[in-house]
Amino acid sequence: MASQTNRHIQTGQDGERKAAAFLQQLGYTILQLNYRYKRAEVDIIAQKNNVLVFIEVKTRATNRFGLPEEAVTPKKEELMLSAAEEYIYKTGWQHDIRFDIISITLSTPPVIHHIEDAFH
């Protein structure tokens, strides 16, 4: 069981690295990785122009059990919103914000799907 858990963690970390590189290629500045507030975590906080973007990364080895983005639950959205509120408060951010999902399937080559403004 431990090896399956380790594989799952490794898959997630691999996806987050790929997502960060993908965003940087698109001109985003990565501000924070794995930002935590209480029980919430935001995988990537990035900025592009005057928009602060909170990003959930979902990675799967295959799409056999559904698309990665389908795993973002309303509870996860709620937790991200609370973490975003805290980050905005701590940093004094006063411009636009957005919540995105980056869905990655680790096929060859990997398939990356960037869903902008995924929820509010």
From TrEMBL:
CDD domains: PoNe_Nuclease (cd20736). It holds the Pfam family UPF0102. HAMAP family: UPF0102 (MF_00048). Belongs to the UPF0102 family. This is UPF0102 protein ACFSKU_17610.
